[in-house]
């Protein structure tokens, strides 16, 4: 998953991050908030959970103990979620997909060509670039891992878009 601190400097992103000019990774975050289940029980029911971790939410909630961060690890999908303890409502913090059967956003799919992703995001990327390719939008970062000119993993960090 992306490190939260890696995206703190949006005004002056590190050189290895490429700013998008068309589709913004924040659109993926927005789409995830509407297409991903709204409650923890619904998210857990998506498939067999390989592992689940719970950690304090700290700065994400007022009061601090009213929510927690849960990481759900499925085969081909890892979601780090902010969970309101009382209602069990969730919002996506980070999301990584590396198997094509998970369809939660349209902007980029596992198995699609890098040239297609390049066109969608309005950036110049190629298979000659080292993997992962780091894209930066308005408030979200996106890592595209690739092999043989095809996207093999999509990792989006929606924390800054909250």
Task: Please tell me about this protein's structure.
- With 162 residues, this protein is an alpha+beta fold.
- It has 3 helices and 8 strands; from the N terminus they run βααββββαβββ.
- An 8-stranded mixed β-sheet has the order 1-6-7-8-5-4-3-2.
- Strand 6 and strand 7 form a beta hairpin.
In short:
The protein is α+β, with helices and mostly antiparallel strands and 162 residues long. The protein contains 3 helices and 8 strands, in the order E-H-H-E-E-E-E-H-E-E-E.
Quick tags:
disordered N terminus; eight-stranded mixed beta sheet; 3 helices; 162 residues; alpha+beta
What portion of residues is helical?
10-25%
Q: Give the biggest sheet.
A: 8 strands, mixed
Q: How far is it from the N-terminal to the C-terminal residue, by CA?
A: 17 Å
Gyration radius over CA: 16 Å
Please count the beta strands (DSSP E, at least 2 residues each): 8
Spatial strand sequence of the major β-sheet: 1-6-7-8-5-4-3-2
The total of helices stands at 3
Q: Overall mean pLDDT score?
A: 86
Question: N-to-C SSE series?
Answer: EHHEEEEHEEE
Oligomer: single chain
Shape summary: globular
Strand content: 25-35%
Low-confidence parts, pLDDT < 50 over ≥5 residues? 1-12
What structural class results from the helix and strand content? Answer: alpha+beta
Write the SSE topology.
Layout: E1 17-19, H1 25-35, H2 40-44, E2 51-56, E3 67-74, E4 77-84, E5 90-97, H3 114-121, E6 133-136, E7 141-147, E8 150-157
Parallel strand pairs: 1-6
Antiparallel strand pairs: 2-3, 3-4, 4-5, 5-8, 6-7, 7-8
